[in-house]
Amino acid sequence: MFTIEHEFDSTLITIVDDGTLPLQEDVVINAFSECVTVEQYDARLDNVQKITLSLEQIRDLAAAMNLPEGSYTLSPSKTD
Fold this sequence. Notes:
By secondary structure, this protein is mostly beta strands. The chain contains 1 helix and 5 strands; from the N terminus they run E-E-E-E-E-H. It has one helix at about 55-65, and strands at about 1-5, 10-15, 25-30, 35-40, 45-55. It has a 5-stranded antiparallel β-sheet. A hairpin with a 4-residue loop joins strand 4 and strand 5. The longest helix is centred in the C-terminal third of the chain and has 10 residues, at about 55-65.
């Protein structure tokens, strides 16, 4: 299950683990015009772990989901 909310300056996506036990904490993805953050609560450390990805890294991640093992370089997009 996931939710999508459009905020003033970003789009907020929350992914809820509704699979089999043990369940993982919700993942919160916040997409801004210049970057994307991914957050998840870590119960072991009792805090939220956060990473920030550039839009180029997100583009590469999306492409990597459909490619076989290897090393790749994508051509810059027309908007770069």
